[in-house]
Design brief:
Layout lengths: L4 E8 L4 E8 L3 E10 L4 H11 L9 E2 L10 H12 L7 H45 L2
Antiparallel strand pairs: 1-2, 2-3, 3-4
């Protein structure tokens, strides 16, 4: 019984979104790379694969390591898939820069809020101390 394993991974390389298509039939391991440009949607990837699979050029095959792969618990596999498909961040450089700026502003606002609260507490403490002194003096 022959098993063939196909994997398609989309990632951002710093400039463009790329897709890496791997196929492993137990003996041969082949890879093909596709450059998308902007971030592709799921349906765009699916339609691309349906239209262009025949035209894809694969690398010269390498010998596969069949024995290296062992059976994984289904629940563990689900966790691994969820971890891989989770949004690891925002896509474009501009969005990443905006996100970084937002995080920095959040930290600055936390610091300033803490300082304001601390000053307010000190002011309240000073007022209480003055009231205590005034009571002792009898005013």
């Amino acid at each position: 019984m022959d098993k063939t394993k196909f994997t398609f991974t989309v990632f951002f390389d710093g400039t463009f979104y790329q897709g890496v298509y791997e196929r492993d039939d137990g003996i041969k391991y082949e890879v093909s790379r596709v450059i998308f440009g902007k971030e592709p949607k799921d349906y765009e990837i699916y339609s691309f694969m349906l239209r262009n699979f025949v035209k894809m050029r694969f690398s010269p095959y390498l010998l596969s390591d069949e024995h290296a792969e062992k059976r994984i618990n289904p629940k563990r596999m689900q966790r691994l898939i969820k971890k891989q498909t989770e949004n690891s961040g925002i896509g474009t450089k501009a969005q990443q820069a905006i996100k970084l700026m937002h995080e920095q502003n959040k930290i600055l606002s936390k610091k300033s809020r803490r300082l304001r609260e601390k000053e307010k507490k000190e002011q309240i403490f000073i007022i209480k101390q003055e009231k205590k002194k005034d009571k002792r003096k009898g005013h």
